[in-house]
Amino acid sequence: MATTWHVLGAGSLGTLWATRLARAGVPVRLILRDAARLKAYEAAGGLTLVEHGQARQYPVPAETPDNPAPIQRLLVACKAYDAEQAVAQLASRLAPGAELILLQNGLGSQDAVAAVVAQARCIHASSTEGAFRDGDWRVVFAGHGFTWLGDASHPVAPIWLDDLKDAGIPHEWSTDILTRLWRKLALNCAINPLTVLHDCRNGGLQEHHCEVAILCGELTELLERCGQPAAAQDLQQEVERVIHATAANYSSMYQDVNNRRRTEISYLLGYACKVATRHQLNLPHLNQLQQRLIVRLQSLGLPSD
Ligand code: NAP
Questions:
Q1: I want to staple 219 with a disulfide (CB 3.0 to 4.6 A). Which of 64, 138, 186, 240 is the partner?
Q2: 78, 85, 103, 254: which to mutate for ligand 1, most atoms within 8 A of CB?
Q3: Ligand 1 neighbour 13 (Cβ under 6 A)
Q4: φ, ψ for residue 156 (rounded to 5)?
Q5: 79 lines ligand 1 (CB under 6 A)
Q6: Beta pairing partners, 75
């Protein structure tokens, strides 16, 4: 019998994965926060995915964390700051040989999760797919992209990648997933905080070329010190390319701040600064950027961690 995908968190990415797996006939179950969220979900009748302007509802079964059934495969689709606690409450349900797929952006949350489920295999993911919620239990598939998956401690690909193929989730097994995550983190650090501080779209950073270049220099130093030279290669050129190619877009951090939502700063810029300190690396502009961002978040009444 096919293994069930438990999906922890029915937000943007959780819904994007759950609905595509379910419509391919793969068994999926959602794990929602508590009985109140489960009741609200059941009243809604399922998850709605809006794709190419067309909305379709999928009645994916759901449960609460205290359901006793064992979990073999868990897709963790919470924000980075919720992942550790959300997984910890499921630790006793994990079957021997259980696998977790971690969709969180940035770095730091994956290690925190792995520490609470030492017996399970943790697979990291880095995705360029884009989705947002436009209502409760309703998600718009906004940007088609790609997902890389990998396990830094075990290079063999799991057989369930076939489920992703059947579900039409574009993906590839990566043997250098940490390099990909570091590269994405560095791009994020060079672009997203500045879009918040300068209150601009990505393209607005073309007017702050020097500031971006200095940050890229410090980020390159950090990546090299962390043993990630491949992630450091031509970083500034790629940052400039991304700024140009996504000039009309608002960064994810900008959108979080604009919508008065908590950001994932601790797993992005905050993580970079923490690791630099650990390596006794003096990166004054990166630290200053973090301080400026914290002050801005606090002035808006948003969490700064
Ligand atoms: P999201 O829309 O905010 O969804 C997070 C979900 O997690 C929410 O539904 C939330 O429940 C749920 N959750 C939190 N704690 C929980 C718990 N203890 N038990 C059960 N459910 C819990 O977030 P997202 O945009 O999908 O982002 C998830 C991760 O993917 C982030 O790290 C993000 O950076 C990354 N990512 C997102 C995108 C994207 O396009 N959205 C793209 C690439 C990467 P409630 O509904 O009850 O609040």
A1: 186
A2: 78
A3: yes
A4: -80, 135
A5: yes
A6: 7, 101
One fold for 5-175 and 179-299? no
Write down the residue that tokens 């961002």 correspond to.
293
The residues assigned a catalytic role are: 184
- Tell the residue nearest (CA) to atom 46 of ligand 1: 11
Residue 234's alpha-carbon distances to 56, 148, 150, in angstroms, are 42, 21, 23
46 CA distance to ligand 1 centroid (A)? Answer: 17
Task: Give which of 113, 72, 73, 107 is closest to 89, Cα–Cα.
Answer: 113
- Map out the domains of the chain as residue ranges: 5-175, 179-299
Mutate which of 8, 13, 192 for ligand 1 pocket (most atoms within 8 A of beta carbon) = 13
Please report, in tens digits, the pLDDT of each residue of the chain (305 residues total).
Answer: 799 999 999 999 999 999 999 999 999 999 999 999 999 999 999 999 999 999 999 999 999 999 999 999 999 999 999 999 999 999 999 999 999 999 999 999 999 999 999 999 999 999 999 999 999 999 999 989 999 999 999 999 999 999 999 999 999 999 999 999 999 999 999 999 999 999 999 999 999 999 999 999 999 999 999 999 999 999 999 999 999 999 999 999 999 999 999 999 999 999 999 999 999 999 999 999 999 999 999 999 999 99
Q: Return the CATH number of 5-175, one of 3.40.50.720, 3.40.640.10, 1.10.10.1400, 3.60.15.10.
A: 3.40.50.720
Q: How many CB atoms lie within 10 A of CB 206?
A: 13
CATH number of 179-299: 1.10.1040.10
* Ligand 1, atom nearest to 77 Cα: 28
What is the pTM for the complete model shown? 0.97
Q: Identify residue 181 by its one-letter amino acid code.
A: L
Instruction: Establish whether residue 76 lines the binding site of ligand 1, counting it when its CB lies within 6 angstroms of any ligand atom.
Output: no
Instruction: State the distance from the centre of ligand 1 to the C-alpha of 156, rounded, in angstroms.
Output: 28
